[in-house]
Amino acid sequence: MGSFSVVTSESELDRGQSNRIERRGLMDALDASQNLVWFDANGMIVDANPNALRLFEYSDEDIVKQDYFALCGNNPRQLMADKRQWGRIASGEVNHMERSYVSCHGREVWASVNFAAIKNENGSTRRVLALFIDMGKFAWKPNDAARPY
Question: What does the pLDDT read at residue 16?
């Protein structure tokens, strides 16, 4: 048997409304300061905030025609690994990584990214929110070791 709580006082109602306002404020702050991309469970992009659009050089209309694999660069040699990785992300297992992504125009975007699976009541993934942090030219990349300075 599932449990549920019954709101029994006005102060509990006020606390619930205050929590919703606080969460909305947190989401507004993240939206203003971070690069956010929302995916469906299959990896299709369903939305991106203006910061992410600038980072990946897409228009609002064009990014929703893309999927996670387009951001990964659609490298045929890497595609199976990217598909396995997406499977873990969609199931909620993977939540952080640093790797190279690709902008609309082919520019490398080295990013630290956190993934959060948003689940339905039955536990299946409805959406995945990705928070990309652009590591820029200051990030050490695995290929840097092979470059002479």
Answer: 73
